[in-house]
TrEMBL record:
InterPro entries: ATPase_P-typ_cation-transptr_N, ATPase_P-typ_cyto_dom_N, ATPase_P-typ_P_site, ATPase_P-typ_TM_dom_sf, ATPase_P-typ_transduc_dom_A_sf, ATPase_P-type_domA, HAD-like_sf, HAD_sf. Its main location: membrane. This is Cation-transporting ATPase. SUPFAM superfamilies: Calcium ATPase, transduction domain A (SSF81653), Calcium ATPase, transmembrane domain M (SSF81665), HAD-like (SSF56784), Metal cation-transporting ATPase, ATP-binding domain N (SSF81660). The chain crosses the membrane at residues 34-53, 223-243, 398-422, 434-457, 906-928, 974-996, 1076-1096, 1116-1137. CDD domains: P-type_ATPase_cation (cd07542). It is an enzyme of class 7 (translocase). Residues 169-213 form the Cation-transporting P-type ATPase N-terminal domain. Residues 263-384 form the P-type ATPase A domain. Belongs to the cation transport ATPase (P-type) (TC 3.A.3) family. Type V subfamily. It is a multi-pass membrane protein.
Length: 1219
């Protein structure tokens, strides 16, 4: 019973998706709420502030756990490692507000779709439903499934038949109203946040609240100048942040505003056609595509076809042809019926309709699939509004450090209380002085200081035309140790050059036709296929489409014309375009070709085909093009040349892009039969026509950048949708795979009826084939291990299909392959994202660089995604480069490393600055004293404030070092640095504090002013000072004038300057300190000023700084002590703590190894004599492969996180792994 109760109050939202949430049910208790209200009043609102920071505490304090069905409040928790909480109120929607009668009969559904969540959610006879709104998505309580379900979309369980049968005639007026009430408006509304709201959110940040408390205390004690400076700095920081957030809010609002104002024409059952605003659309509505327009929702095309510009989604403004959902009688879900290719029937929100092609006399129609934030564009906007939180050790370690400093302040607070109470000082003064010591340890300039490095880096990146929408990721770029690259348009040039065609005849390849010869392509089936098998369209007299299709079509020298030209004469279909030989084309017996039917290209199918009519012929032709390996499967075996694999390899190994063509004649009588043809019937029993060879050249920067990354020990990986052999050749030509390295092809196959899933390993070797030319072939020797002399120089290459099989059936084998996997070809967009995530699970910091086409998911998933496209799709990418080559990658890593080192330096400095002041102030507190306001001010404003604003402006070092900077604050070198510097500071200050009391001229000034005056002549070189000093001696607590403060102040001030110098690390991640002119000048100036004040005898200076003149020998002693401390600290920091070789020796000596998953795998595999396997086949049942079938890939039921990968994922790295 108890188990059932636990299950009732907890459920999962978006199960198995990236934004998965746990939801817990709670019921508000009036008594608890009243008690919290009283407590909030009594604590002057502090409790409300705590509840604002910790919403879960508010729920736990005011509510009790209850079943979700009865909850009026829900607590949501993310299922990632951050475990963030969100509180939401459960609201009720009442159907009684609708202006027409509604049946209260429980047996009678309110919407035609019987399985709809809406029918399950509405309670009868109350006619109400319960819902919550989470991250712009509405969820309603499903009374049948007993969980919250998403609304605003059609269920995936619908079959093709259901969609055509239930929705093709439109919805009734009543059903539309019900759906609109439940699903909400079809609008992507981004509220422009009011400035006051943004301001309050910033001001209520915990650190700013502590800062406000600190500054209030300091102002009450008369420490005005520094407090005002910090207030001004904080106000500027808050105003800039609010301005930036406001600008982003306005920009995003403007981006989506027009989407909500589109006028659409819908079909209402029983009422005909209606025109309305797009925000009133509901899932299930049928609307008419008028022609050129922007899609206001996601929809399924049910009648006619159209051409879309999906640049918003893919980053490429290439026309995409959409086909209607077929009429199928089976009950299979419509997405499953079309497999991965279901997108060819879906029109996505925000994409542009370029052209519509009605199937008959009626208009082109589509059924609304998803509305509002459920759409593709809504998802893109949500990813910007609610970005994935950064899991970076620096930020969690920084919080721990601040907590430590705060604890140190608490110790100081109780120490001050003890000292002042012992001397029987008034409670008011005691508490004030204790609170002052509490605030010394946590510098109020900390938030501004930590962001300065990022701001400077962002400014430098902007000069290099790299723009950033997520500045916090710049620090993360400093840790990148693996970069994934797309191939086409990223490593290689965007465009393809035609090299030649290789036609076939009589089952043999014929002579190559070279385009470089200038001769036109001879007429034949291959020429007809190249002229017609494409998705090009004619728009305003210009041919538009995929660059590959465009280049191929241009190679035929044929032209496109509108269908009205010679239409009657040709007696073709009402196709939009016809294709005719151009003036430069070879003589052809065919006057024109008309494309009658098109089966679009899809990356999952790797092919496309068309049904075409040739003028003067009474039958039709099928032309097909695609990946050669795929296309050969659809051809009659007797038409495929026997040397096809060798010929294909010959070209792909030279880096050419190869496309194959096939053809068959159709004996159909009329055009209506063409429309009813299935793809399966069209794409069968084809005749192989030949190959088109295209050249894809490397960009001139590619080789140099990859070499630079390799020398910096940064792994490079290629993830492409292109042919595997081509990808391998490009990797070798670009030296992503260095010369002499071995490549092992990994080919995995799905399980069949009696055969389990298998993985085959084939070793590829280089062999000289003519002077200066390498040809690659499959080694057929029966070797099981690579030659020993090759060591670890091997690289795995695989296709997307093999990756998917490994992911599903060889999960324990996948990490072993990934640590040396370099080439991933024929990868779909989803597989690209999955691969990036798998690399992250191995504790790699992953960068992804792509041109936006099909890379959006991977760009968002990576720690640092760099888009080379400026299309709308790149909005979700953290970085965008306006220079369309990969030079941006090393620039970004250099700036990331410099920003990271700057953040560490500033953090160490501020920690030491707080500790230096804490020790000095604590020593003075022992005799009820403290430093003077101007003494504090010089340290706080002249040194700390200016240091924090200038230390980070040192530029990045121009050469990438072969190792990364430390990625965590809690690492031995950094902790020892702070600890040892604290010890040096403590020793010098305590010794100076005690030693000054031993001097013959010393007296306790604040107690014995007469003694001080009598002894003045002993140490003052300016006798006129004597009579002016008695006025400053005071007996009240908090007195400033003393020999102790005069001795400690120059020591602490010089210490602040020296630690700023020591912690401002230059090479290998930043340029030397002297190149930062402002910072260097500042340190020299402050040091000179401090020494000048120390040795000067000017009355005005000493009175102003509240110092006492001492003997020259004592002043020299102070300077010598400060110099010795600097030399010791500098030697320890530079020769020991920053000595990478020494730390590596210590790690090896004591057996400390990296806790990163990929390091552990590398170590294990290096010791495994049977790895890597070559020229053998393993099956998923073999015990040695750790047989494991990952059902989470196939099923919507996810597995527990810990079981998805063998060994799990280490989220915390060991202290000793920073190097």
């Amino acid at each position: 019973m108890e188990e059932k109760s636990k299950k009732d109050h907890r459920a999962l939202l978006n199960q198995g998706e990236e934004n998965e949430l746990e939801v817990f049910g709670y019921q508000t208790q009036s008594l608890r709420r009243a008690f919290c209200l009283v407590a909030s009043v009594m604590t002057c609102g502090i409790l409300l502030l705590v509840f604002y920071w910790r919403p879960q505490w508010r729920v736990w304090a005011t509510c009790i756990l209850c079943p979700l069905q009865e909850a009026d409040t829900v607590l949501l928790r993310t299922t990632d490692e951050f475990q963030r909480y969100i509180r939401k109120k459960v609201t009720c929607l009442y159907l009684t507000t609708l202006k027409f009668p509604i049946s209260k009969n429980p047996e009678e559904p309110l919407v035609a779709d019987h399985h709809s969540v809406i029918n399950h959610a509405i309670l009868k006879p109350e006619l109400k439903l319960r819902c919550i709104q989470v991250q712009k998505i509405r969820y309603v309580w499903d009374n049948v499934e007993k969980r919250f379900q998403k609304v605003g979309l059609l269920e995936d369980s619908h079959s093709c038949y259901d969609i055509h049968h239930m929705f093709s005639l439109g919805l009734t007026h009543e059903e539309r109203e019900v759906r609109r009430l439940v699903c909400g408006p079809n609008a992507i509304e981004v509220e422009i946040q009011p400035i006051w709201k943004l301001l309050i959110k910033q001001v209520l940040n915990p650190f700013y609240v502590f800062q406000a408390f600190t500054l209030t205390l300091w102002l009450s004690q008369g420490y005005i100048a520094y407090s005002v400076a910090i207030i001004i700095l904080s106000v500027i920081s808050i105003v800039l942040t609010v301005y930036d957030l406001r600008q982003q809010s306005v920009k995003l609002h403007n981006l989506v505003e027009d989407h909500n104002k589109v006028q659409v024409t819908i079909t209402v059952k029983g009422k005909g056609v209606q025109e309305l605003e797009s925000r009133l659309l509901v899932p299930g509505d049928v609307f008419i595509l008028p022609g050129k327009c922007s899609l206001p929702c996601d929809a399924i095309l049910i009648d006619g076809s159209c051409v879309m510009n999906e640049g918003m989604l893919t980053g490429e403004s290439i026309p995409v042809t959409k086909t209607p959902l077929p009429h199928m009688e089976n009950s299979m879900p419509w997405k499953s019926h079309s497999s991965e290719d279901y997108r060819k029937h879906v029109l996505f929100c925000g994409t542009e309709v370029i052209q519509v092609k009605p199937a008959g006399q009626g208009p082109v129609k589509a059924v609304v699939l998803r509305t509002g934030y459920n759409t593709a564009k809504g998802d893109l906007v949500r990813s910007i509004l609610y970005p994935r939180p950064l899991n970076f050790k620096l930020y969690s370690d920084a919080f721990k450090f601040i907590v430590f400093l705060a604890c140190l302040g608490v110790v100081g607070f109780f120490y001050a209380l003890g000292v002042y109470l012992y001397h029987r000082i008034s409670p008011r003064d005691t508490v004030t002085m204790a609170l002052l010591l509490l605030t010394v340890t946590v510098p109020p300039v900390l938030p501004a200081a930590l962001t300065t490095g990022i701001v400077y880096a962002q400014k430098r990146l902007k000069k290099k035309k790299i723009f950033c929408i997520s500045p916090q990721r710049i620090n993360m770029c400093g840790q990148i140790n693996l970069v994934c690259f797309d191939k086409t348009g990223t490593l290689t040039e965007d465009g393809l050059d035609l090299w030649g065609t290789v036609p076939t005849a009589d089952n043999c390849f014929q002579e190559v036709h070279s385009f470089a010869s200038g001769r036109p392509l001879p007429w034949g089936p291959l020429c007809a296929a190249m002229a017609s098998c494409h998705s090009l369209i004619l728009l305003d007299g210009t041919i538009q489409g995929d660059p590959l299709d465009l280049k191929m079509f241009e190679g035929t020298n044929w032209i496109m014309e509108d269908c009205n030209v010679n239409f009657c004469k040709l007696r073709m279909s009402d196709s939009n375009i016809i294709i005719k030989p151009g003036p430069k084309a070879n003589q052809s017996p065919v006057e024109a070709i008309s494309i009658l039917r098109q089966f679009p290209f899809s990356s999952s199918l790797q092919r496309m085909s068309v049904v075409a009519g040739l003028a003067g012929e009474d039958h039709f032709h099928v032309y097909m093009k695609g990946a050669p390996e795929m296309l050969a499967k659809f051809c009659r075996s007797e038409t495929v040349p026997r040397n096809f694999p060798q010929e294909l390899r010959h070209y792909t190994m030279q880096g050419f892009r190869v496309i194959a063509f096939a053809h068959k004649a159709l004996s159909l009588g009329n055009l209506s039969e063409v429309e009813s043809l299935s793809r399966e019937k069209v794409e069968s029993d084809l005749t192989f026509l030949g190959l088109l060879i295209m050249e894809n050249r490397l960009k001139k920067e590619t080789k140099l950048v990859l070499k630079e990354l390799r020398e910096a020990s940064i792994r490079t990986v290629m993830i492409t949708g292109d042919n595997l052999q081509t990808a391998i050749t490009v990797a070798k030509n670009s030296e992503m795979i260095p010369q002499g390295s071995q490549v092992i092809l990994v080919e995995a196959n799905e399980p069949e009826e009696f055969v389990p899933a298998s993985v085959t390993w084939q070793l590829i070797e280089n062999q000289e084939n003519g002077p200066g030319k390498n040809e690659t072939y499959i080694n057929i020797e029966n070797s099981s291990v690579l030659p020993e002399e090759q060591g670890n120089c091997y690289h795995f290459a695989m296709s997307g299909k093999s990756y998917q099989v490994l992911f599903q059936h060889f999960s324990s084998l996948l990490p072993k392959i990934l640590v040396n996997g370099t080439i991933f070809a024929r990868m779909s967009p989803g597989q690209k994202s999955s691969l990036v995530e798998e690399f992250q699970k191995l504790n790699y910091y992953v960068g992804m660089c792509g041109d936006g086409a099909n890379d959006c998911g991977a760009l968002k998933m990576a720690h640092a995604g760099i888009s080379l496209s400026e299309q709308e799709a790149s909005v979700a990418s953290p970085f965008t480069s306006k220079t369309a080559n990969i030079e941006c990658v090393p620039h970004l890593i250099k700036e990331g490393r410099a920003a990271l080192v700057s953040s560490f330096g500033v953090f160490k400095y501020l920690t030491m600055y707080g500790i230096i002041q804490f020790i000095g102030t604590s020593l003075l507190y022992w005799q009820l004293q403290l430093f003077g306001n101007y003494q504090y001010m010089m340290q706080d404003i002249a040194i700390t404030l200016m240091v924090c604003l200038t230390m980070s402006s040192t530029h990045a070092y121009p050469k990438l070092a072969p190792y990364r900077p430390a990625g965590q604050l809690l690492s031995p070198p950094l902790l020892l640095s702070v600890l040892l510097n604290t010890c040096f500071t403590c020793i010098v200050q305590v010794c100076a504090f005690l030693y000054v009391k031993q001097q013959p001229w010393y007296c306790e000034v604040y107690r014995y002013s007469e003694c001080f005056l009598d002894n003045q002549s002993n140490f003052s070189t300016n006798m006129s000072l004597e009579r002016n000093w008695t006025g400053n001696a005071t007996l009240i607590p908090g007195s400033i004038l003393s020999f102790e403060s005069t001795t400690l102040w120059p020591i602490t001030t010089i210490n602040c300057v020296t630690v700023a110098f020591i912690f401002s690390k230059g090479k290998p991640f930043r340029k030397p300190i002297y190149t930062n002119y402002i910072f260097s000048f500042l340190l020299i100036t402050v040091l000179g000023l401090t020494v000048f004040i120390l040795f000067s005898d000017f009355q005005v200076i000493y009175r102003g700084m509240e110092l006492i003149p001492t003997t020259t020998s004592w002043r020299i002693s102070i300077l010598v002590a400060a110099l010795i401390q600097f030399c010791t600290a500098f030697f320890v920091e530079d020769a020991i703590l920053q000595n990478r070789v020494l730390w590596l020796l210590i790690k090896n000596k004591f057996g400390f190894f990296s806790k990163s998953q990929y390091r552990n795998w590398q170590k294990k595999l290096a010791e495994d004599s049977t790895w890597p396997p070559t020229n053998r086949t393993d099956y998923s049942g073999d015990g040695q492969n750790g047989f494991y079938i990952n059902r989470g890939f196939e099923s919507p039921e996810p597995l527990p996180q810990g079981k998805l990968r063998q060994g799990g994922q280490t989220t915390q790295q060991h202290f000793w792994t920073r190097l």
